[in-house]
Amino acid sequence: MEQLIHYVWKHKLFPLTGLKTTDGKPVEVIDPGLHNHNAGPDFFNAKVKIDGTLWVGNVEIHDRSSDWFLHHHEQDANYNNVILHVAESIDADVRTEQGDYPPQMQLNVPVKIREHYDELITTDNYPACYRIIPDLPKLMIHAWMSALQVERLEQKTDAITERLTACNGSWEAAYFVTLARNYGFGINGDAFEMWAKTVPLQSVDHHRDDIMQIEAIFLGQAGLLELPAIPERYQQEAAKDEYFIRLQQEYRYLAHKFGLHKMDAHQWRFLRLRPQNFPHIRIAQLAHLYYQRHAGLSQLLECETVKQAKELLATQVTPYWETHYMFGAESEKNEKHLSTSSLNLLVINTVVPMLFAYGRHKGSERLCNRAFDFLEALKAENNHIVRMWKEVGLAVGTAGDSQALIQLKKTYCDKKDCLRCRIGYEYLKKKDA
């Protein structure tokens, strides 16, 4: 596997003595060079001593030396300055575009490295590296967790940047879409993001002082003011529901006024969803948040503590939704406010990424640091990913820790990308007991 040979070369996980070219000249690897992930040779600016002469240049690596021709390197001038061609199997001499013959060296992946790699890739135990985790240096774990935390925030920043582009450069709109997506709390996240992009905030702003009109636009744009969007067993009651009828009338008027086009209600998912998480309730909560003027980025940026952010996002619903989960389905009276755990998730998944992304945009170290401070101030999330890592010996104290471990599982473990993981590196070079 070429990727594994790259890894072994990059980290010098091979015997450093006794190396020779195919024509018997001694080789000393001083610096393997910089790994190139783009077009061109695999490693730039390597330093290799061949038969006592120091060479500085590029190194190309293949499974078989004949792959040089398979990839047409003999026709590419970028490979003219290759000082060493490394392959696990030497089955051909190689030639550059200039007609030179770079020296070649056979490099076998050490048996233990290959065995450990196969264990990581094929084992049914999860995570595959669980055996060594309790013995890993705390400093190494801390450094890797910090890097993963930043990586996750950068990934979320990329998603916010994409929303910003879709919102024609409006940070306020991009924040609203991000907030709405996370009101889906996973199962309806995609639908909420789609919905939020259909809500014309500038038009809604003309009716900001009327909560019913805000609800009418919000629910109407979600396609939830149509009888077919209501389960059949509730349709008869909904058709007689005065509030439902009023919202329908308001939405028809506002949709005509602003030229609105609603989304397809079939995008919403209800299966195995608890009633308090129904989109009707979440949208009603967002409507109230918008009505209170608590759904804007400018207000969020004024929050200097987690407590202030949670107070800003704490919301409620209008009296109708205190006794309903959907139209035509009456329930016991319930304030239907966001729970502490839900508010924590909104801070982790909305507030923190927005502070970090906007801080990056503005070049504000203060906002970026505040994002990290918020993660450290919140307790770790309690989900199956976090519990799994706890079971194998990783300490998880803060939301920063849990976000790092979610990133580790989704970006590395799930993709079997152990060669880019620092724990994977420790596993590959471990000595068997």
Descriptive key words:
single chain; 433 residues; alpha/beta; 2 domains; six-stranded mixed β-sheet; two-stranded antiparallel sheet; 19 helices; 8 strands; DUF2851 domain-containing protein; DUF2851
Helix content bin: 40-55%
Strand content: 5-15%
What is the number of domains?
Answer: 2
Q: Based on helices, strands and strand pairing, what is the structural class?
A: alpha/beta
Biggest sheet details: 6 strands, mixed
Strand tally is 8
Query: What is the number of helical segments per DSSP (H or I, 4+ residues)?
Result: 19
Mean pLDDT: 94
The radius of gyration over CA amounts to: 29 Å
Q: Identify low-pLDDT runs.
A: none
In whole angstroms, the N-to-C terminal distance is: 26 Å
Q: What spatial form do the alpha-carbon principal axes imply?
A: elongated
Output the helix-strand order: HEEEEHEEHHHHHHHHHHHHEEHHHHH
